[in-house]
Amino acid sequence: MIINERMEIRSHQEIADRIFEMTLKGELVSFIQKPGQFVHVKVSDSYAPLLRRPISISHYSKEKGEMVLLYRSDGEGTALLSKKQPGDSVQVLGPLGNGFNPDIAAKGKRVLLAGGGIGVPPLFGLAMELNKRSIDTVSVLGFQNRDDVFYEDAFQKESRTIVATADGSYGTEGFITDAINDYELDFDILFACGPTPMLSALKKQFSDKEVYLSLEERMGCGIGACFACVCHVPDSPSGYVKICSDGPVFKAEEVVI
Fold this sequence. Notes:
The protein is globular, with a radius of gyration of 18 Å. The chain has two domains: 3-96, Translation factors (Elongation Factor Tu (Ef-tu), domain 3, Beta Barrel); 102-216, Nucleotide-binding domain of ferredoxin-NADP reductase (FNR) module (Rossmann fold). Strand 8, helix 3 and strand 9 (160-165) form a beta-alpha-beta unit. The model has no long low-confidence stretch (mean pLDDT 94). The relative contact order is 0.15. The protein is built from five helices and 15 strands. Strands 10-9-8-7-11-12-15 form a seven-stranded mixed sheet, with helices on both faces. The two termini are 30 Å apart. It has helices at 76-82, 121-132, 152-156, 176-182, 196-205; strands spanning 3-16, 19-25, 38-42, 53-61, 66-72, 89-96, 110-116, 136-143, 160-165, 172-173, 189-193, 210-214, 230-233, 236-242, 249-251. The chain is α/β, with parallel strands linked by helices.
């Protein structure tokens, strides 16, 4: 069930360079089904910006009726959102999309989580679910530099965690694929979220594994009506899926990236 609700901001803080953590409280939380789902947030009470902003749900507590969103302030809309204070409220549509399915990772399977930049947040909720099920999990988090790193300590509580930075200023130098190779990580299932070049590289390198990708894309409506976030499917130039409603999570071989 999708609802449109005005949610109270319980806490809001900058936790890394232009990365904000916002905790929202409301009835919407009770309808979240899987890690990796997202919401559409109206960042202003005026007519501008017109479109809502899609933001991944990092994690949530149905008992408290609270969910945590992590987002990067890098445009007009998110800059406005970053000014909101605890006690304010925002209009939120959700929960949206089909997220990660933790049931895929049966006991005995080794799972790798790979998150790049703002693709890290939805994987945290998944890490929590896998930890509850005692699944052998390693998380590799990729950032541009030291100032961009966030949630390392939180991930360490849920799984073995490795951080890579492109400039080598923190953790392993290089990209996520470099860290996976450097540490000789072996796994059966890969769940990944991040920039398209990162997902494409993972799909190509680990074509012999079971790989699930959460795609990032600009979204107009969030419910599959506007066709702004389509992605082609293999062997069918005219065929496509809608990332917001069919995804954002797909098995790697289901999409062309």
